Amino acid sequence: MTSLTLAAALALSACSTTSPDVVQRGDAQRLAQVQDATVLSSRPVVVDGSQSGIGGVAGGVTGAIAGSSVGGRREGQIVGVIGAVAGAVIGNAIERSATREDALEIIVQLRNGERRSIVQAKGTESFNAGDPVVLVTTGGKTRITRAPAVQPATNG
Q: Which Pfam families does its entry note (predicted)?
């Protein structure tokens, strides 16, 4: 019963990511605003999973089918309804668990003195107080990445 639900929830979680190391297709080849900043602090947080309803529907259908095959016609109908409800609850829980993400809350100070807090999924970079970073904003979403080394300008 739960294998179909689990497969649906896992497929859902594979479709969506907030990883700073993954650029969404719609953000590719778009000009982004970049701001220099310095990390003040960074702490681990968890982004709660989502419940789109697909996990519940998949679980409900699976539970109804599995339950309806129990016993005779009347018993099958009753167990089918119970299986649908139980499957929906389990499907929602699996989807929520599969879409949870470990993340970082990073507090930065911009060059003008303003402070910002950004939560982003854990990526390959770690951030410590004092690290120079850039805030990259595209389509209303901001991510933080390490500032690239700046080469001194040459007069030539």
A: Rick_17kDa_Anti
